[in-house]
Write a sequence for this structure.
């Protein structure tokens, strides 16, 4: 484990606003890097000093943590010290050379890059803002059962006869898990091996569960998987088996665990039936499931073929009837699924001034079908791309996405010295691609030598629960690319979107940038698309940002908690407002090894 640590200052950022007699804001450091922090560790800490290095009153109006689209703002806390401890908001006055230290803490709840922005709103001679990038990475192991049913049912066994079933445990984290534990609550006839779990990152470890009923009756228990360095309660899976002295047939294995069966990829399973003196038997599925067929290729062998025709449950019983004696009902569990993934067809990163800094934009791929999807590392198509790509989550590929989960990258335009449009394609390959053709997102960014610039060109908030004060504000950056100042009219932002920062800049000097935040606060269960419009008497055309989000009655992509797919906040796929749009070749064997993770009662951390 890593001990709590203080983070070193990076650089000085001073906002020179005019003559020396004016108040002047100085921030040290200009950015914060918390490094890699284990999810189970104490928070990493840092201090940002905000100083009035000029003369005259300077008022701090608010400190706000902004999210880039993954819900990472909730992983950070910011607390101003004296003299502003209880004064921000509404305001805290910093007179000549007075300063306040803002204590920052980073406690990641998800694996992946968990960047946020500390937005400082203040008033010197006018309302202004300054943004401080916050960088941190959540790391650690995870724990998940792979393709496990809701109940692991061994069926009915002869008294005193043992039967085994094997499950796989996966670790989708950033390091090996070495201290996992298996336990069975009220074990009765159930046992498990091994007792300790060692699961390497991006791999799987088998566990064997055994039931050996010593008496007649039905037995239940609960399997628990946990690890000290995987936050949250144990993963739990219900176990069931029955003992019956009249039962003479025994199936090996005692149950068929189909897991996910894609409509385009049939599955097969074979069973051996043993019974002294057995001559012949018949078999049938009760109830029958369309697309599931059973044959008896030999007197002691059953073959189950699963070629489902529609999504849905494949849970049934395979009933085997001998010429004499009691029939045997073999549990069959699984799900028929469709593999599908989508990306936004086009993303505008916004407009930027030439020879000025740029800002990143998150782009996501979403598993939009009902199947778990394998994803390979996304790439920019042009080797000399005008953009930089950074992995957000997952950090390592190949990866797996459960239904409705997302993979993120950050795309940042490289600064340019001449006006014009930069473009490239972001390429994603998955095992859901039709005919092996990867998905593409067209990326553009426009650079201006004159006028006003705004980035990003679109904010997508995803699903947000109605009537909930969600902390989902995302940042928008304005730049003045002109040689003269321009005034800004009050922004036009239609409900249920709102300006969440306490002030909005009224003017921008030449070369000046300002950041404000926009939030989505729905009151009705509707999908909403609006446009933020900013006008100025000095600008020939308004500045616009497209806004979209969906209000839902329950749940949602509030990455302060689970996503609509039931993700824990510590899943690296969780998202609080993500850029997504809708769009079969196989990936490498490494992807196939990472089968669908379906932990029960809690998601793996």
């Amino acid at each position: 484990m890593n001990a709590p640590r203080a983070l070193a200052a990076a650089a000085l950022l001073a906002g020179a606003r005019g003559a020396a007699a004016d108040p002047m804001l100085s921030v040290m450091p200009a950015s914060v890097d918390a490094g890699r922090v284990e999810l189970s560790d104490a928070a990493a800490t840092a201090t940002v000093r905000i100083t009035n290095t000029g003369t005259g009153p300077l008022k701090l109006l608010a400190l706000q943590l902004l999210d880039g689209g993954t819900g990472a703002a909730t992983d950070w806390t910011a607390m101003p010290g004296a003299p502003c401890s209880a004064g921000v908001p509404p305001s805290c006055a910093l007179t000549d050379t007075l300063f306040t230290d803002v204590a920052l803490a980073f406690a990641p709840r998800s694996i992946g890059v968990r960047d946020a922005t500390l937005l400082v709103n203040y008033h010197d001679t006018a309302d202004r803002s300054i943004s401080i990038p916050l960088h941190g990475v959540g790391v650690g192991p995870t724990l998940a059962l792979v393709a496990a049913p809701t109940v692991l049912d061994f069926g009915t066994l002869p008294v005193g006869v043992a039967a085994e079933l094997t499950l796989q445990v996966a670790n989708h984290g950033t390091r090996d898990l070495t201290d996992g534990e298996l336990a069975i609550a009220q074990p009765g006839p159930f046992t498990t091996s091994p007792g300790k779990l060692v699961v390497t990152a991006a791999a799987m470890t088998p566990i064997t569960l055994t039931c050996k009923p010593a008496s007649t009756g039905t037995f239940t228990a609960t399997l628990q998987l946990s690890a000290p360095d995987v936050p949250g309660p144990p993963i739990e899976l219900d176990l069931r088996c029955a003992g019956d002295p009249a039962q003479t047939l025994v199936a090996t294995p005692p149950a068929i665990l189909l897991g996910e069966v894609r409509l385009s990829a049939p599955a097969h399973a074979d069973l051996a039936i043993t019974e002294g003196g057995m001559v012949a038997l018949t078999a049938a599925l009760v109830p029958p499931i369309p697309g599931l067929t059973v044959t008896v290729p030999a007197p002691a062998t059953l073959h189950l073929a699963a070629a489902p025709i529609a999504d849905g449950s494949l849970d049934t019983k395979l009933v085997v009837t001998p010429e004499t004696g009691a029939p045997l009902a073999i549990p069959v569990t699984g799900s028929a699924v469709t593999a599908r993934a989508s990306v936004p067809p086009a993303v505008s990163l916004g407009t930027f001034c030439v020879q000025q800094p740029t800002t990143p934009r998150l782009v996501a791929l979403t598993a939009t079908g009902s199947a778990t999807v394998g994803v390979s590392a996304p790439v920019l198509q042009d080797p000399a791309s005008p953009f930089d790509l950074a992995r957000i989550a997952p950090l390592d590929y190949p990866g797996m996405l459960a239904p409705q989960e997302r993979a993120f990258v950050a795309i940042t335009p490289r600064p340019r010295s001449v006006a014009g449009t930069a473009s490239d394609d972001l390429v994603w390959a998955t095992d859901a691609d039709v005919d092996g053709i990867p998905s593409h997102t067209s990326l553009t960014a426009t650079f201006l030598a004159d006028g006003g610039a705004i980035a990003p060109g679109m904010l997508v908030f995803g699903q947000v629960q109605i009537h909930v004060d969600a902390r989902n504000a995302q940042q928008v950056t304005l730049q003045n690319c002109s040689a003269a100042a321009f005034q800004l009219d009050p922004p036009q932002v239609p409900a249920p979107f709102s300006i969440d920062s306490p002030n909005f800049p009224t003017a921008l000097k030449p070369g000046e940038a300002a950041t404000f935040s926009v939030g989505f606060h729905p009151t009705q269960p509707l999908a909403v698309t609006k446009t933020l419009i900013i006008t100025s008497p000095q600008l020939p055309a308004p500045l616009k940002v497209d806004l979209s989000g969906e209000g839902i009655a329950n749940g949602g992509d509030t990455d302060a908690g689970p996503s609509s797919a039931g993700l824990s906040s510590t899943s690296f796929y969780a998202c609080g407002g993500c850029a997504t749009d809708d769009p079969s070749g196989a990936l490498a064997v490494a992807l196939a090894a990472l089968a669908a993770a379906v932990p029960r009662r809690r998601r793996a951390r």
Observations:
- The chain is about 0% helix and 50% strand.
- Residues 589-593 form the longest helix (5 residues).
- The longest strand covers residues 127-139.
- The helical segments are 589-593.
